[in-house]
Amino acid sequence: MNTEQLQALFGERFLGREQINKMLERMGMEPLGEADVPPVNFSEQILKENASTHLLILGYAGKEGAPLNILRFRECFGTDPEKSEPCLYNQDWYLHEDFVLRTLEPRWYLVRKDVFEQSRAVQPDALLKKDIVFPSAILCVYTFFAWYFACGQYLWYHDFVWCSDLDHNSDRIYVGKYHDIDGVNKNGFSIHRHLALRPCYGSISAL
Fold first, then answer.
1. Which residues contact 30 (CB under 8 A, 6 or more apart)?
2. What is the pLDDT of residues 82-134, one digit of tens each?
3. What does the pLDDT look like over 51-79, one tens digit per residue?
4. First vs last Cα of the chain: how many Å apart?
5. Residue 201 confidence class, pLDDT cut points 50, 70, 90
6. What is the sign of the dihedral through the CA atoms of 179, 180, 182 and 184?
7. Does a structural domain hold residue 182?
8. I need a labelling partner for 140 at 20 to 30 A (CA). Which of 43, 59, 86, 206 fits?
9. Is residue 159 part of a domain?
10. Which domain holds residue 95?
11. Residue 86: is the preceding peptide bond cis (ω within 30°)?
C-alpha cells in the first residue's frame, strides 16, 4: 500500500513522514526525507484489521551522535508544565537507567490508541500470558509527542500503559497519565516503575 492508501485507511491515525517532521521541527532536528522512509513492514490484512484501533507510526532513531531517546525528549520538552506543554512529568529516578538510552528501529509500528478495558487493574504478568505485546517506553514517548504535534491531542491522558522495559531491579516500567484527574500532581507524561516485592520489604509494629 502506498502513502495515499495508508492515509485513507488510517485517517488521522496515520503518522508518516509529514507528521513526524512536525515533531522533529519542534525538537530542532533535521526533517526526514523520502529516503528515510522504509517500506511498510505489515501485511495489508494486518493493516486493515488494526486500522480502527491503532496508530500506524513511522519510527525514527535519530542521527549518529544525536540519538532520539527518552533523554532527548526530556531535554527538548522539559519537565515544567508552567513553562511549556506538552512536557514530561518532573522526576529523575530513571536518568541512569539503560532503557532511557534506547532508540526505535527505523520501521513502522502499530500502536493501540486506547487501553483494553479488560486490562484495567490486571497485573502485567497476567496480561503477558494473554499474548498482549507491551510497547517499549521509547515507543510510547515517541508516539505521545508525535500524536500531539500531528493532532493537538494527548494520548493516555488519564491512563497508564505497561511497557516491555525493566529497570535494573527488573521492575516493570509503565508510562502515560498526562493529567492527574484529582489535581494533586502537575501535568506531564509520566515514567514510573512497578515495584515488585523482594526480601528487603518487611513490616515492623508500633504501639
1. 24, 63
2. 999 999 999 999 999 999 999 999 999 999 999 999 999 999 999 999 989 99
3. 999 999 999 999 888 999 999 999 999 99
4. 70
5. confident
6. negative
7. no
8. 43
9. no
10. 3-115+122-152
11. yes
